[in-house]
Design goal:
The radius of gyration is 16 Å and the shape is globular. The chain has seven helices and no strands. Helix content is 54%, strand content 0%. The longest helix is centred in the first third of the chain and has 16 residues, at 4-19. The protein starts with a helix and ends with a helix.
């Protein structure tokens, strides 16, 4: 299900965070936690990898986004503005993956991640298919 109202709030918070006008803490407070739209949790949990949560900061100065991070967030914003259903498997933070990598089972973890991501085009996540992304980016 698409929660249009929550997506609009999420997009605004994410855009302001990306532009550096609000801090990571403000972004986290404002980002909606709607259970009705799985895109919200997916995007929130994956954007988390683009910033540090150990202190309050904006995405400026030493915390500025990389080009890759900026492109990722711009795709997330584009997806939030769409009415597309989120079709990826539910995003789960698997805390045991680093432990498995630490004990030499990184290949097992990588195969599992590749299997989960094989249902779509990972390079255009959160869009499932490149055609969806290209269609939205030309509107």
């Amino acid at each position: 299900m698409v929660d249009r109202h929550a997506r609009d709030i999420a997009a605004e918070a994410l855009r302001e965070f990306m532009e550096g006008s609000i801090s990571n803490r403000e972004y986290e407070r404002r980002f909606p936690r709607s259970k009705d739209d799985p895109a919200l949790w997916g995007i929130y949990s994956n954007v988390w990898f683009c910033y540090s949560d150990t202190s309050e900061h904006t995405l400026t100065g030493k915390h500025v986004l990389t080009d890759e991070g900026r492109a990722f967030i711009e795709r997330c914003l584009l997806f939030l503005k769409s009415d597309l259903e989120f079709q990826w498997p539910a995003t789960k933070l698997r805390l045991w993956y680093p432990l498995l990598r630490l004990i030499g089972l990184g290949r097992v973890v990588n195969r599992q991640v590749e299997k989960e991501m094989s249902i779509g085009d990972a390079d255009v996540w959160p869009f499932l298919k490149k055609a969806q992304y290209e269609q939205m980016s030309h509107q």
